[in-house]
Structure formats: structure tokens, C-alpha cells
Amino acid sequence: MVRGRSQSPILGIDLGTTNSCAAVVDARGTPRLVGESAEGRVIPSVVAFSGEDATVGAAAVRQAITNPTRTIFGAKRLMGRKVSAEDVSWFARAAPFRVVAAPNGDAWIRIGKEGRSPQEIAGYVLRRIRQSAERDLGLPVTRAVVTVPAYFDDAQRQATRDAGTIAGLDVVRILNEPTAAALAYGVHRAGPGRKIVAVFDVGGGTFDISIMAVENDLFEVLSTSGDSALGGDDWDRRVVDRLADEIFDAHRIDVTGVPVSLGRLREASERAKRDLSERQETAIQLPYLGQAEGGQPVNFERVLRRGELESLTADLTQRLAIPCRRALSDAGLSPAEVDQVLLVGGMTRMPAVQAMVEEIFGRKPKRSEHPDEVVARGAAAHAAILEGEQGEATLLDVTPHTISIRVGDGSLVPVISRNSMLPVRTRKLFATTMDDQRHVRIEVYQGEGRDAASSRKLGHVTLDQLPSGPAGSVRVELIMTIDVESILRVTAREPSTGREARVRISPSGGLTETEISRIIERRRDEASREPEGDP
């Protein structure tokens, strides 16, 4: 099938922590990035608010120095997360804007006197991408395949869907980033036979490792692991902390408490990190960074060397190894059995990261010319498969986290193990624990912890009007299914009467339909006056 010029395409979108982009498959069957210009096709995932207006992308980045408390970056790290999570608290302490608790405990961002969800911030980015693609293609765009880190949990995936809804997009598929990257690399076209491929993906805020078997047009994910709180921002922050300490020691001023100074320091640290991927040293020059106690201006100059950066962040680099070894173990493979290692994400440009990958897998990894674009290209390829425009590649994915239910003493009973092949369906039979028990409430948790306190509650299902009887005489059948998009559904059924309760597990927290509708209405009100971003 070849799409006619008048038919709206499905966009493939990589919604990144640092940068985002979109792609479609062209008439020759090749995924290409879309946007208004070559310079504007990869946009920073940054939104700046000025009065009632919002600016997105590079234009927002340019405001970061003069408008730091209202220029929001890294929203992906907060989506689907509670404000009490350790890594969220750490991010909040370093950010120039305020991260606050929503009424349900979710991490939101305060803009002026108003709290905004990270889903809404991501919605601005997605809307900018959609509008830019529409201008490039000359067609309306309403559907998208959006990628997420493989290690994203149910709440984070639902938050991504909500961001798409806010942006006016029907998210037809949530696709794991490593799987998208493997599609874009074309490993299924690299000759006959079964190949074991590791996709190593380090972006601005997350790290994923997926081990997959590829044969012909079949992609079978064998295992996945990662760290959803580890990414390039963490390397940047180490440099910021070191430089801030040096400035304090020399001038007795704390630049981290001055949003404008902190913004400049963060920008310089990120630039230095990028420079050191290509060279051995780089100069950091920050004139008029602050004011000393005597009133004289503080000018900061410093040469940062690659070896110093690598020493400063050595523990972060070492953290990349743990999920890799876990993924290999879960797949039942040794490093020598991996045929290819694919690198994805901007942080894989860093020589120390590449050396770590080579040390773990015993082979040189394969690099893409555009590690920031490869995921979007893979998402576009998958969109074309869904539309019937390309081959019938089959993606067999796994669930990244164990799904359990809570029992009386607070401990958890695993029902679906992590790295179970998707779709997965399982049944378990339980009995009542009290005489004449008329209802059961089954709480569902996600994570590798052994008790409820160390895992994440996803939701619950309640089955009432059970038949009377002594404890243990009434049975309840629990059926759990997870589909190919990692959507969990739970059914509780009493076999003798056939009475059942069903629920699609929605994450605890997240946006309600009313909140989403309110955000969309606000976006309509803003649309007439909001700059669209870069010209």
C-alpha cells in the first residue's frame, strides 16, 4: 500500500528528555525526519513561559538565562512520578524552577502561582512537533507512534499517552525506544540467520538496555533492564556541582541560589560535556557570573579536561554496567553470545561510555551517525508497518517489571514475572480468608520489591456479593493480561456464580479526564496568542 498525498500519515515521534523529533517514511520507503527546516527538525524539549504565552524549542532555550524559573526542561523525568521519589527530589533541588506536589502526590511544576503537570509541558513539545510536521508535509497530522524507554512503568507510559492527547494526537502505539532503534538500524536486513543484538540507549534522563533476537522480520526481545533515573543530565549536574563548589571556595558566593547564575552554569557545563566527546579539553568562560561580598563582579574561567570529567562521573558510568549484566543474566546469555551492540542516545557519544560498553560486551559497539534521530526513524518505520506500507516485521516485546498482588501481611505474591513475553495472560486461584466474606479487594503492584512498601501500587479491583460460606470455601479466580503496549487488565471472577469484576489498571496518580479536558481548553485559549517557537 502506498499512501496517497491526501492521506494523513502516522508520525513516529521520539519524545526525549533533552531533544525531540519526528519522522515519516517517504515514497522510497526511507524514514526521514520532518520539520520546517533542517535546523528545526530536532528541537530541545524545553518550554518557556512569559506572561500567558509559551515558547517551545530553541527559542525557549534562549530564554533560560533571563527567565530561569519559568523555563522548564527535563519534564520527561517527572512524568508519571511521585514528588517524594528520591531521584525526583534530587532533580528538584538542582532545577531553577519549582517542583511541587499535586493533590495526588504527583510531581508537578509551579509556573508563577499555578501548578502544571509534566504531561502538559510535554504536550507543548508534542504540539510543536505536530504543527512543524504539518507545515512540512502539507497535511494534517492526528496520529502518532510515540517511543518511551523500555524501562518506563505503567504510570510513565500512561503519562506519555496523556501528553499526546493534550497535543491533539491519537497515540496509536507506545513503542519501546530500543526496539525502535533496532528497526532503524535495519538489523533484520543484515543477512540470514538468527542474531543476538543488544541495544544500549542513554538519553538525557533515562538509560535502557534491551537484549533481542532478530531473525528475518521477527524482533524478539529476550530481556530488558535499565535505570529510569540515569541520563546525560546527571553528568551535567556533576560538572555544575564541581564548578559551583570552586566558585564558592574562591569568592564565597553560592551561585546555585541565584537562578540566572545557575542557568548559565548549567548551560556551560552541558556544552563542555559535549565538547569533551570530541576533544581532550575545553574552556569554560563565564564573565559577570555573580557579585562578591565587596561588590566586585565575579568572573569565572576554567579549563576542563576529558580525564577530569571522566573521573568526576566514573560512578555514573559504572552504574551503566549493572542493568547490562542483569539483562544478560535474565536472557540466559553471556556477552560472547551477543553479535551486535547498537548505541542510541546523545550520551553514547562520550568516549568513556563507549569504552564501558566495549568492556561489558567484549566488542566494539555500532554507532549511528545521528544517535539523536535514530529512535524517531525507527518509530516511523513501525508506523509504516502499522499502515501496511512496509514489510510485516513482527515485534515480540517483554514486560520490564514484575506484577504482583498484595496479601494479608503486606508481602507481595508475584503473578507476572519481569521479562515475560508480551502479550501475556495468567490465572491464579485464591480462597476467602474469613467466614461469610462478601467481597475481596485485590491490590496490584509493580516492581521487584518483596513487600508493598518497596514497590509501586498500580491500582486495585474489587469483587463483591460473593456467596456465603466458611473461610476457604469460596474461590476467586484472578486473570491478568498485559497486551503488546504494556497495558495491564485485571479480572476477578467467582466461578460458581460467574460474577466478575474487570478493570484496566490505571496508574495511581496521573491526570484525570477532567484535568486533561481542562488543559486542552486552556491550550485552545492560548493558541491564538502563543508563539509557535522558532521561525
Walk me through the structure.
This protein is α+β, with helices and mostly antiparallel strands and 535 residues long. The protein folds into three domains: 10-177 and 374-391 and 513-527, Nucleotidyltransferase, domain 5; 232-314, Actin, Chain A, domain 4; 403-483 and 487-504, Substrate Binding Domain Of DNAk, Chain A, domain 1 (Sandwich). It has helices at 58-61, 86-94, 118-137, 154-166, 177-185, 232-251, 259-275, 306-312, 314-319, 321-331, 351-361, 374-386, 513-527, and strands spanning 10-14, 19-25, 31-34, 42-44, 47-50, 53-56, 71-72, 98-101, 107-111, 114-116, 143-148, 170-176, 195-202, 207-215, 218-227, 281-291, 297-305, 340-344, 394-396, 403-406, 412-416, 424-431, 440-446, 456-463, 475-482, 488-494, 499-504. The strands form seven sheets. Strands 1, 2, 3, 4, 11 and 12 form a six-stranded mixed sheet that branches. Strands 18-13-14-15-19 form a five-stranded mixed sheet, sandwiched between helices. Strands 21-20-23-24 form a four-stranded antiparallel sheet, with no helix packed on it. α4 links the parallel β11 and β12. α3 (118-137) packs across α4 and α5 (177-185) packs across α12. The two termini are 35 Å apart.
